[in-house]
Amino acid sequence: MQRPIGLSILWILISCLSHAGLSAAAEEPFEYFSNPWNVVGLRDYDYGARISPTNVIHLADKRELRFLFGREAERLSRRQNKTVLEGWIPVVMFRADDDAVRYDFKYWATPLPSVKDWRKAFAWPTEGENFLIWTEVTVTNTETESAEAKLVAELVTSNNDSPITKTFTWELKPNEIATAVVRTPFMAVENPSAFDEEDAELWLQRTIGYWKDLMNSAARIEVPCRKATEALRAAHVCQLIAGDHGELHGGEGYSYDRFYIRDGAYQVMELEEAGFWDGAAKTIESYLRHQRPDGRFESQKHQLDANGQAPWALWQYWKITADRAFLERAYPKMLKAAEWTKQARRGAAADSPYAGLLPAAIADGEYLWDGKHHIVGYDFWNLRGILCTIDAARALGKTDKADELQKEADSYRAAIEAAWRKLGIPYFPPSWEKKGTHWGNTETLWPTPLFSPDDPRVAALIDEVRMRHGGGFLEGTIRWISGPDAKRPHGLPDAIHPYMGAYTTMSDLALGNDERVVEDFYWYLLHTSAANAFPEGIYFRTRTAWRDTIPHVTGASNYALMLRHMLIHESGDELHLLQAVPDWWLDEGREIRVERAPTHFGEVSLLVRGTKDGVEVKYDAPKRRTPIKVILRLPRSRPLIGKLEGVEIATRPDQKKRWDYPTVVDLYSTDHHH
To answer: How many domains does the chain have?
Structure first.
């Protein structure tokens, strides 16, 4: 079907409008990655359609949908830079040019038009796992003379048969616009032509409407940086598409498409803090199903951190929901995990340097695969699990058990202190043997504090990973450096890991090191695709998300957590507002808006407006539980106008350097190794 249509959606530059006079529109947004994969799909379906860096749509059963455009039938390639609608709605867009003729592509996913209730089918696979992939191509002759235009769709099957093709041709008059629509079921069906007459514009508007309604039902966070706000919403969408029947997975359509306790703990926290309560309630049940008969929580074989991460995730769900009935149901499992830790840490002899610690085990995060190292992060997480279980026991009135567990936690902490004293270094290493790359050992103050903020080892570890580990932070994030092995005799010198670096950022946030946090935040945003997809690790010399693990769901969730806690941060029984934000977000005419944000104390709303004389703040306090303190941090140059009842003002120094998205793009683009 070929017919003229109206103007297509304008392409916009997805960026922060942070400099006066910076244009709001440009032909191409900044793209960090050389392999910017993306996904279109539906919430909680088992599958999503991955879109390759060359804009090939990967369907079920190794089928592929490819496009050729222009008079010479040129294949799409990396030259066509992908964005998404409004920076977050899962409608992938890009442009291709053949001289005067412009081809604007859109890919999106909807339920099959044959479903009985399309609204329900957007949110859950109510009538099976299949869905429809839409491709709409708007073809525009931009010149004053007539021009030929051509588009070819190729459906390539897995058995190497000749592609199934569909060809569109036009003779376009000056400034004439035409459209082509291709409708492709993700899974093969007997009669795919049954959908040929379905209205693309109707289903596009249904798609946009569904995602906007869903986002409007959640907590609202908007900051003066458009890139930051859109990336937050894109992070939410990433979680929801990657979920499979309520269980959060680490990725969609690649090797991480399964449940991980480690990743999922932060992912479910992101859903909780965003106010996606139905999704959080479904996925927290996955934790209750992943406990072994001996009490240990496990999703990755022979790795021991999950036994602390699962109790923390259960505790965190209770803290933010105040669901006592859930805690009563989860507590026995938390207690059983604590008992496993108690027995496991008694395996070493009293005169062993590892007395009172967990046994040696493999660790993929620390890149110690031989199972011969004692992993510091495993001890930290299991201690955190016990501490969360103590809090749960006290909340449920089980005082005797809480006291018993407290003695165990004190004993565990003493063993950690004794092991550290033998090391002769000022910080906590990845393993007690001082080998490996930094991972779980960096989670000292986050997501709950294990040590005092003024513990010198916390600051020493931050300095170690920022300044020295592998040469120090690169592109604002931590190096991920393995030890040498037969395949990689020099380790991995070219790898960085943004979401692993986020744990150090969150320690600095807890310490109030706002300028470090702001700088890290914008480097984190640099490491997104033009479509606001987040990676796992990165080979920075080739700008490659390793193993094509993009969009990466934990990378997305850690960004969302970082931004939320920059604005609203629980610190025990205290609530901190604007703990670490860029000074320029508080400039005259700027606005920060937080609405219905769930916290451990109940929902919070915050409206901050910058004026020439300072900042105006409207704060709606939580009603479920009153914090012992509410502290609002402001720079000296931006004082509070008026008073806020029940809120303390903490004045901090102005930041020395302005950090924003154009700044990191410029620094990156001019750096010598690029």
So the answer is: 1
